[in-house]
Design goal:
The structure is a homodimer. By secondary structure, chain A is mainly alpha-helical. Chain A has a single domain, classed as Winged helix-like DNA-binding domain superfamily/Winged helix DNA-binding domain (Arc Repressor Mutant, subunit A), CATH 1.10.10. Chain A is about 45% helix and about 10% strand. Chain A contains five helices and two strands, in the order αααββαα. In chain A, strands 1-2 form a two-stranded antiparallel sheet. The radius of gyration of chain A is 14 Å and the shape is globular. Chains A and B meet through helix 1 and helix 5 of A and helix 1 and helix 5 of B. Chain B binds a DNA duplex through helix 3.
Chain lengths: ~120, ~120
DNA sequence: CCAATTGTTCAATAACTTTTGAACTAAGGA
DNA sequence: TCCTTAGTTCAAAAGTTATTGAACAATTGG
């Protein structure tokens, strides 16, 4: 069973901007962008907010079309929908992430991480 | 007398994104971008919202550092702070405006305009 | 000076968003 | 089967943002 996601052409610019205009969600997106290709589970983000609140923010990101969440056992694998976002809004995600990377006042996750091999 | 504006380095990414994540404000910014260099007064935007509501949205844009408002007699001249935004968040404004231009569902102002010389 | 034009402020309300905790579901391992 | 892990759902509370109308201020033209 997979959760509802908008199709690429249903992704709306004002909704994406509004969703990214929240520091917690921006931190999540930033982290997903840095670990692109590696699907994340929610527990990665527990230092940003409570479990319940994370569920809320991750649902917002998914409903806006910014992320994709797939069920995998008891976990959820979360990925950035970069392909769809780049197609719909060329350059937007890159400039947002670059801007977020340059901002020291933004909350962040896993910025000083030791790469652990599987 | 000029209204309070943030300095370039006070402009915050999440605040800018949240402010642009409103269709009325996006329409204003889009119009300012198309008429860049030409300072606009508020009456240009009266088909987007009521006078009072416009005052509110224009204040949000100004406080976020997206626009500059200068008093000029009984009018206010509103311009995009493109220089400051481009310095702080390279590429962001361009990709937002390009994305907005490609979206037919967004409210717009003056898209079919006859150029009137002064 | 008077009236019109341009826009602001204020208070109220409506509408949304965020956060919370408790209760829940579903999968997987012992 | 029972327990743990991972995450959702729900309802309530808190907080924030958007919209409105009426009243206000400042400038300009007659």
């Amino acid at each position: 069973m997979s959760l509802p996601h908008p199709t690429a052409d249903q992704i709306s610019l004002p909704i994406v901007l509004a969703v990214l205009g929240d520091p917690t969600r921006l931190a999540i997106v930033r982290y997903l962008a840095r670990k692109e290709g590696v699907p994340m589970n929610c527990s990665k983000f527990l230092d940003l907010a409570s479990k319940t609140n994370l569920s809320y923010h991750l649902a917002k990101l998914r409903e806006a079309g910014v992320t994709r969440s797939e069920a995998a056992g008891t976990s959820r694998l979360i990925t950035l929908r970069r392909d769809d976002l780049d197609k719909r809004f060329p350059g937007l995600l890159d400039s947002v992430i670059a801007a977020a990377d340059g901002d020291k006042d933004l909350p962040a996750v896993g910025t000083s991480e030791i790469e652990v091999s599987a």
